[in-house]
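Model the whole thing, not chain by chain.
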Amino acid sequence: MKLKGRSISPGRAGGEALVTREPISFYGGVDPKTGTIIDPRHELHGQSVGGKVLVFPHGRGSTVGAYVIYGLKRNGVAPAALVNEFCEPIVASGAILAEIPCVDQIPIDNIRTGDLLLVDGGKGIVEIKARRKI
Amino acid sequence: MELDREQERILAGERGPVLERMLRLLVRLGEIYGADRFVPIASAQVSGVSYKSIGDPGLELLEDLAAQGARVRVPTTLNPAGIDLEAWRELGIPEEFARKQMRIIEAFKQMGVQPTATCVPYLVGHRPGFGEHLAWAESSAVVFANSVLGARTNRESGLSALAAAVCGVTPDYGYHREENRKATVVVRVEAPLRDAADFGALGYYVGQRCPNGVPYFEGLGGASEDQLKALGAGMAASGAVALFHAERVTPESGKQETAGLERIEFGAGELKKIREELTSDCEPDLAVIGCPHASLAEIEEIARRLEGKRLRKPLWVCTARAIKREAERRGLVQAIERAGGRVIADTCAVVAPLEALGFGCTAVNSAKAARYLPGLCKQRVVYMRTEEIIDLLTGV
């Protein structure tokens, strides 16, 4: 299944989906050194975003979040791609500067954690290559 | 977004990867916010300077951008840093913090940014003209530039302001456009406002009531620039206000249509309520004046009030390096120091590591500082007028 959204940051990448309905604040929410979600109130607390296609409705919190996304990339623990319902400027800035493919205007309820996704950031397409085996 | 040929070449990567990424960022922001073109900017003000705010990820990004050849195309100034760049040792700032702060400043300098390290660029020779487009971060400077000077800027983030500085343009949306600069709510001011702290309280109240509005104030005739600076900073801290008009005071007030707009009142009761809301029950062990950075007139007032007195608790007066130099030339810094106070440049209470210096309860005359110190510096806050702060600290 192909989902068509809007291009935020170009590039093609694939990986396993990590999906949350809760917004993410990268600043204070994700450790830029390890890629682990450290916000104790977040439902993904303790999980690693490294190499995953991170699917979340939108970012929140401090603009420093953009720097954290860049730090994740520099430390080799960044998500392979980002998929949002609405990509606000903090996540957009971080994704573009870190050169992480990013697409928004995607109905994320169609995607489940563990699905295998292919993201084309330039065309704004998210393809579900395989569903998680239940 | 409509692009010119040079911008198309940049996006095709013909001018190198840094410029491409910076312009791509601006194009995306423009698309998100519905801009259909770019406007050239006269200047940029970049935030996200303190090591306390941006940490190692920010330091590394800025050093990478500088090393990859990012250079600003328009006059670009810098927000306050986390330390007084000359006197940080005397303030007890940890060595490691200072070293990383210096690397951040160096990276900005390499990109051609002027290390002004102040939130009041308009008081140190970077005063925008009426109608000029800008890309300014620093919420209090944004509201001052839009409202008091009639320039045009959105509330930029540190990164979008830097990208605009490197590209020399910003997407044309929001406060760049005439139709978004109209008053949306009338504020009738009945309370007598004596001091910047009272104007800050008014701002705090209005920012809470209409966080995304464009307020039109009635009853502020004769307000000084310093008072308007405090008013705007308060609104931008409790809300996201970027522009206000004040009847017969600000340059775009004359063309506002206020008939039929929602009206709110600010009387003595509201002033008292906000002062109480911003005040905790604690005994200050520090007082900070200068958020936004103190003007020369404000430093003069403090020096005058301290004449012949002795401070029993530390007083920090935060300002821009250039203003401190002028205050030194006039003997004002020396007067404040004789009373036991300090005039600190390049930094402020909000972005300095206050919590690491052993303070727990701070007296302030700024609604912005009162809003941010509890969260960012783990301080309890007492909200007072300048005069009350000096009286408290000198034991009158």
